[in-house]
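From the methods appendix. Each design record in this collection lists the tokenized structure first, followed by the designed amino acid sequence. Records were kept in a plain field format so they could be parsed without special tools. The example shown here is representative of the layout used throughout.

RECORD:
FOLD TOKENS (244 positions):
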């Protein structure tokens, strides 16, 4: 079972570094781990967030909808009863995808008060300046001014956001550069190995920038440093975890 101490430890690292580390210590397919680049941080100054996914299917764009928000408040109550922080992960399913507004600073305050660290969505958001003051992290496609009546279609079911299936309770890590889903199995190993990845990257980058080393020599150095820090070998000359 995950603990608050584990989540706090993961928050000490940037998302890309954890993704690199996972690439070496966990066999899960990488394409099932990192969300697509259309989902961008609107609040990069807030730093990394870590939490368990609370999932939602959401429609705020369809004309004629009367709205149905009760499931959202029910989900808020469940979030507030959880022992660990959450991240609200929202798949927009309305008829006008370019008009989906998932949250503003009012909903951000509700969510944050219930223990939610931020929102990850394939829709849009607004009131980013207000979200910053909460503070509430926002990862989405961009900003938008308004929305139709909000209809919460489903909560706490598997959804797809950024080309990745997210299930309720999945561990999410996000920062200014993107979002990943961390498999539950390797969390202890990830925490233990992340410092080594950070040290490896510092050492290898110092060598990669050198102009007095040939490409072949740099490849050899990379392989030697991977071995020294206890990570897997390179594959076809490229780092498996993309530690570049």
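DESIGN:
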């Amino acid at each position: 079972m995950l603990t608050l101490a584990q989540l706090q430890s993961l928050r000490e690292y940037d998302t890309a570094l954890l993704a690199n580390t996972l690439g070496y210590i966990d066999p899960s397919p990488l394409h099932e781990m990192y969300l697509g680049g259309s989902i961008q941080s609107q609040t990069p100054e807030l730093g990394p967030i870590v939490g368990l996914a609370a999932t939602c299917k959401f429609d705020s764009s369809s004309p004629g909808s009367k709205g149905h928000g009760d499931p959202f408040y029910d989900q808020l109550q469940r979030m507030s009863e959880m022992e660990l922080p959450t991240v609200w992960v929202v798949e927009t399913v309305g008829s006008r995808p370019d008009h989906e507004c998932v949250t503003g600073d009012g909903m951000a305050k509700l969510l944050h008060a219930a223990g939610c660290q931020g929102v990850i969505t394939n829709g849009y958001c607004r009131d980013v300046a207000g979200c910053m003051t909460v503070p509430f992290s926002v990862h989405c496609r961009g900003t938008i001014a308004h929305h139709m009546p909000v209809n919460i279609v489903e909560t706490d079911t598997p959804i797809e956001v950024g080309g990745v299936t997210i299930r309720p309770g999945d561990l999410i890590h996000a920062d200014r550069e993107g979002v990943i889903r961390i498999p539950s199995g390797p969390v202890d190993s990830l925490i233990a190995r992340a410092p080594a990845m950070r040290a490896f990257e510092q050492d290898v980058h110092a060598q990669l920038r050198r102009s007095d080393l040939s490409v072949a020599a740099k490849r050899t150095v990379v392989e030697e440093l991977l071995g020294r820090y206890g990570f897997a070998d390179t594959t076809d000359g490229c780092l498996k975890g993309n530690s570049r």
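APPENDIX NOTE: The chain has a mean pLDDT of 94.
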